[in-house]
Amino acid sequence: MDLYATNPGPVDDSVLYDQDKHVSSAVWEGQERGALRCHEHTSKLDQWTLTSKQAELVKKAGFGYLRLIPAISLDNPLISALVERWRRETNTFHFTVGEMAVTLEDVAYLIGLPIDGEPVIGVTYTTCEAVCLKFLGKAPDSGYTSGGMVKLSWLKETFSRCPEDASTEDIERHTRAYLLYLIGSTIFSTTTGNKVPVMYLPLFENFDQAGKYAWGAAALSFLYRALGNASLKAQSTISGCLTLLQCWSYYHLNVGRPRLNHDPMHECFPFVLRWKGKQSGPTSNRDVAFYRKALDTLKPSDVEWCPYTDINQNVIPEEIKWSLNLGRSKTMLICFDKAERHLPDRCLRQYGMHQPIPEDVLRWERKSRGVDGGIDLSGKMESELSEWSDRRLHIVEGDEDVDDSEYMQWYLGITRKLVGRPIPISSEFQRMNAALRDIAHLADTLPTHGMDEQQMYSVTRIRYIVHECLRDQVGSSTIMVNSENELVKRVRGKQRVRRKGAGKRKRKDDSEQCNVAEEDAQSQLCVTAVVLDAVAVDQSGLCNVGDEVENSQLRIPATDGDDVRLCDDPASVVDDSQLCQMASEVDDSHFRHSADEVDPIKKCNSQPSHAAIEVVPQPSLETSNGVAQQNDCSVLV
């Protein structure tokens, strides 16, 4: 079997040193979080009506192409699966074929924002009134604000239509409100769902100056930070320019890509417009698990490393072409407090170059702007600003003599190759359980004649540990005491528990007989009997003979459609507060192992002082050989 069936990596954790915090660790342990909530608020952008003068100011500010991009239907499961592959240690996706990333070049091509210019940074605010009055001429009511953020709905309700006869000052105010709404609903969308920080407003005071900022670099920094945050275990949301992320995936990966409608719009700039409108591909049954499996099995033939080479270059604006060289700059991307490394040296194949083993990534501090207002962040980000100012000095170049196979050999040792388990976790539990039973059988039957004291101690210790593990699994993995509602939530399929024998109370010395009726003649299920001595069980443990019986809340999970029968002494009682755990030591001789097949209509006779529990969910797998032949069933104990 493939090494990665049991060890998904990284083998060498010098690169992915935060693996324990990453969502892939939780997924591997069976802790699914479902699809992320994707916060991008583009659906109401078309409700803004811009005059020709406003459109001219928007273009001056550097957002002429971004405003042309309509709302694109987001594929939340696809985005969620991509996030599971993102690594904040390298700011790249770790796919089976190597590292890839959304780069400055992608930003320029896809959304047409300037990737060169002054860093997007300034003063933070904790209140909205003063800054809104200064740059918008109006201040929102307290119900529309939260700290230094204002609701997008207030901006739209107040400024979405500029009068034709408005003064120059009013036109500029309405345009600033539109720009704040535009960036707050696209490139700088937040997880709050409907708010945008007012700290961006001063950057729009002068529209010509606004056009000199590297808005594309800021958008990418914001997206990198959002991807890094969403890749952590505890996160359930993601923000940032998700249209950029999704369309990047469409261009580079043949995973979830919709069919293209061939019309002239698809030869327009920016290239996101190729995917304009709703998806036309079959996506109704595609959940996170579907996309996760597709990415876990991604082949080189599924990757478009250089997707823009076949696109009509004549539609690309000259100012965009002029800055494309910066797409390979190894630098620091800045958006106020969000400073993220841009590392094109780790994905050179996206530029048509061979990929060598990259240099180590220098760790950097991910800063937060804090809660204090009126602070110019430039003073806190001197080293990051210095890296950005030297961006043209760090353009990575390719090497024709590089062998990609050397990179892949190195890469497979440092990456997390798989996110989803190739073998279900229930089957792996069966393997472990069967192996424990094998060890227990060997330890119980091992001749001890001639052993010295130390050897005897070792054998006894092995017996004790193995039987303890098997006993714990009886308590923790197959017996569940809970309400019916919780059972439905936590266990897939239908589980039915039937008690056999509701006869009168018998004496402890009387033997009893449990008749198991045949439910399905075709299934030919085997019965696994677990016999536990009731003598060594504490009052809080398994049901002791002589206790009173209530309608038990005892639940034994089974596979879908199977019946689980509980055969016990009619005189035995399970209080619904009891977990049936063995609180006192059980002698080794009380563990019985049943390896023989049992006829579905077979009577099982228990000893008077024992409680017999029969589980009929699947064929009996008493050894690891049995598990090797059947690994898609529920847990056996």
UniProtKB/TrEMBL annotation:
Biased composition (Basic residues): 493-507
Domain Aminotransferase-like plant mobile span(s) in chain numbering: 62-411
GO annotation terms (biological process): meristem maintenance
Chain spans, region Disordered: 493-515
InterPro entries membership: AminoTfrase-like_pln_mobile, MAIN-like
Pfam families to which the protein is assigned, alphabetical: PMD
Name the UniProt record assigns to this protein: Aminotransferase-like plant mobile domain-containing protein
